[in-house]
Specification:
- Two copies of one chain form a homodimer.
- In chain A, strand 3 and strand 4 form a beta hairpin.
- An eight-stranded mixed beta sheet of chain A has the order 3-4-2-5-1-6-7-8, with helices on both faces.
- With about 250 residues, chain A is an alpha/beta fold.
- The interface between A and B is medium-sized, with 35 and 35 residues.
- Bound molecules: adenosine-5'-triphosphate (2 copies) and magnesium ion (2 copies).
- One magnesium ion (MG) binds next to helix 1 of chain B.
Chain lengths: ~250, ~250
């Protein structure tokens, strides 16, 4: 049975996709079979891994009864597979609104393939709508990337409340995988202030690994590669390799 | 009649809130009465302008028949007022799904107050859902902030298609106010490459003013102020002052 982790935060641009792709790549490169599910209508993880005009996609799984196995495609990394996304998914909020048990669609979809992988990582869109809810219902735990800036920190409390609500109504076992500080810039006081406040409040729930602001992480997607393939020696790639080690040894944080 | 501008981009973290607040502040400081409407359930523009626990909010206008006039509050800048947001708005997608003419709720709300302002700026959430649709239906034009990075550029084509769809179905007069390059870093090749590609493709639709990556813009919200009040001499504030001048002289770009 795979460990299923949702990477979620309703704040936009905090590094959800960058974390999903590069953590998945780092785990796959250490020979663990990993599946990445792109649940964002922007389909950034899909294009970031070099997959163009995929069909079928997660949209077909939700709307056209395509199985997960039919939608899975390989990537440049042997042990990493992905269920791609597409822009049609933006209509999911409306198209799924009157489907019975719409919150458990993804969970049921994953059930028949979860035995094939060690880890399944779900990249979520920047919203707390039906797609993110599906991810949190299907997941064993949630990994929360937080940019070291004011608005991202401010939204963290609210996100934890939403996670608690999912725990009470749909998924009693939902754990916190961990809080990951991203886009850390040691030259910027704000980074230090925010990360200090987050560590003081959330204590050991925060990963020791920190992801620095590093240009290789922003350049890699334009080459359709994870940073680990694009530039494995970069500070960004090394940070995600460290994160993958911590992820494997520590398990859930709360 | 006010000029109504929606600040929108479904890509997260591109500077929608930072642009809404600081453009609104720059216009208000040049003695134009401005209303900012926070349409994001994260309520970043609300807290960024120092407004805590506001009531009523835009949520009450949508759900509890509160008028716009009842929800408007002042800010530290005399000519700048705001209709605040709150987290309950996250449920709007579902609560509004069976209301007749749900796409024109905001337009009808603004009608009775638009005569009081020169400009009304609407900060949108990072999604193309019912809230952003309401903003595009109510607006005369849309201002699109684009971070000088790959994913933000990649999503631009899709956003323009969505704007066109709104034009065809709800708001034939919807113009493009302009495309604004944000978080520009002259030391980073990616910034130059992306901005060059965007200018080549969208030509004069792109503002000449560019917003640099500038720490004052990220620090100001933690003091509950626009950057213009927090540090008016900063490169970030100056860029928004330049943008406001271009906004006032150039009008819509397409
Ligand atoms: N550590 C980093 N250093 C530098 N750039 C980064 C880093 N992490 C992410 N980026 C870049 O910042 C932008 C935002 O990151 P990303 O798209 O992963 O965030 P997201 O949370 O998935 O956004 P969205 O809310 O739109 O889904 C992207 O252009 C990405 O390439
Ligand atoms: N030019 C800039 N220089 C430095 N930091 C910036 C700049 N513009 C915005 N920021 C910071 O980057 C982060 C993202 O900006 P902002 O929240 O305005 O984007 P957004 O598009 O409104 O995000 P969301 O998609 O979550 O609504 C914030 O922490 C903000 O303070
Ligand atoms: Mg993303
Ligand atoms: Mg915002």
């Amino acid at each position: 049975m795979a460990k299923i982790v949702a990477v979620a935060n309703q704040k936009g641009g905090v590094g959800k996709t960058t974390t999903s792709m590069n953590l998945a790549a780092a785990l796959a490169l250490s020979h663990k079979p990993v599946l990445l599910i792109d649940l964002d209508p922007q389909a950034n993880a899909t294009s970031g891994l070099g997959i163009e005009k995929a069909a079928p996609t997660i949209y077909d799984c939700f709307i056209n009864k395509t199985t997960a196995r039919e939608a899975i495609v390989g990537t440049a990394i042997p042990q990493l597979a992905i269920i791609p996304s597409c822009h049609d998914l933006v209509a999911a909020e409306i198209e799924l609104s009157d489907i019975l048990n719409r919150e458990t669609l993804l969970k049921r979809l994953i059930d028949d393939i979860s035995g094939d992988y060690n880890v399944i990582i779900i990249d979520c869109p920047p919203a707390f709508g039906i797609l993110t809810i599906n991810a949190l219902v299907a997941a064993h735990s949630v990994l929360i990337p937080v940019q070291c800036e004011y608005y991202a920190m401010e939204g963290l409390g609210r996100l934890m409340e939403n996670v608690e609500r999912i725990r009470q109504s749909f998924n009693a076992n939902l754990q916190l995988e961990g809080i990951l500080l991203t886009m850390w810039d040691s030259r910027v006081t704000l980074s230090k202030q925010v990360s200090q406040e987050i560590r003081e409040f959330f204590k050991e729930k925060v990963y020791r690994s920190i992801i620095p602001r590093n240009i290789a992480l922003a350049e890699a997607p334009s080459y359709g590669q994870s940073a680990l393939l694009y530039n494995s020696a970069s500070a960004g790639s090394q940070a995600y390799i460290e994160l993958a080690k911590e992820f494997l040894t520590h398990g859930e944080k709360g």
